[in-house]
Amino acid sequence: PGKVVILTDSKSSLYLIANRKPNSYMYSSQAIQKNILRLVDKGWDLVIQWIPSHCDVEGNDVVDHAANEGRQLQEVDYPEELDDIYHKVCRKTEVRWQSIWDRESQTTPLGLIKKKIGNWFWCRHGDRKIDTIMTGLRIGRVSLNKYLSFINLSPTSICPNCSQDVDEDCTHYLLECDRYNIPRQRLATSLHNLGITNMNLTLLLGGAEADCETLKRITEELATYIKATKRFEES
């Protein structure tokens, strides 16, 4: 490493290089910025200095001539770095998946809760059985009578605990069934301590608009509720 001074008579190019989000020549500017940072990280003392045009610097006319030739090119062969290509592919794939999700999932139980693709790491409790139950609640395939009757494993879809003819589905189990009023009240109190007053299905199953720490706490409280009801120990 040593000291390097790069001289240029183009103020506009210096402004572009100094701008973290240039409005034009974005790829070229960012490529130059990356190379500058790479050299600085390696220990080079690098300075880019503006100089007035046509000040008898040797080779200036040659540079101007080359620049004029460059402006006449219809296409510029810009060699993209592998990292840039990778991020572009990832972004395009993400946009495509999100479009497919928006189009095809909104009539599914999970689609009504999860609006964005991506990993819900905060939805994992750590207990394999509890995580399996939570996943079943999110996709509507869990050992409650409505689903069990759908796959011919229960003679009825009705909740066995309620006097009225009410289907035992995820909403009923989490928010309505009288048998679980006490653990549900404890759940509501715990959520209230987190500043949450509107307990609903989307919130409980991981789709709330909240920070990751709050979402993790909601998952923990839901796990406590599931254990307290003992509903799935009966299955």
Strand and helix layout:
Elements: E1 3-8, H1 11-18, H2 26-41, E2 45-50, H3 60-71, H4 82-104, H5 109-113, H6 128-139, H7 145-150, H8 170-176, H9 181-193, H10 201-204, H11 212-229
Task: Give an account of the 3D structure.
This protein is mainly alpha-helical and 235 residues long. It folds into three domains: 3-79, no CATH class; 83-113; 121-233, no CATH class. It is built from eleven helices and two strands. It has helices at 11-18, 26-41, 60-71, 82-104, 109-113, 128-139, 145-150, 170-176, 181-193, 201-204, 212-229, and strands at 3-8, 45-50. The chain has a two-stranded parallel ribbon with strand order 1-2. α1 packs across α2 (26-41) and α9 (181-193) packs antiparallel against α11 (212-229). The longest helix is centred in the middle third of the chain and has 23 residues, at 82-104. It starts with a strand and ends in a 6-residue tail after the last helix. The model has no long low-confidence stretch (mean pLDDT 85).
Task: Based on the model shown, name its key terms.
235 residues, mainly alpha, two-stranded parallel sheet, 11 helices, 2 strands, 5% strand, elongated, RNA-DNA hybrid ribonuclease activity, RNase H type-1 domain-containing protein, RNaseH_domain, nucleic acid binding
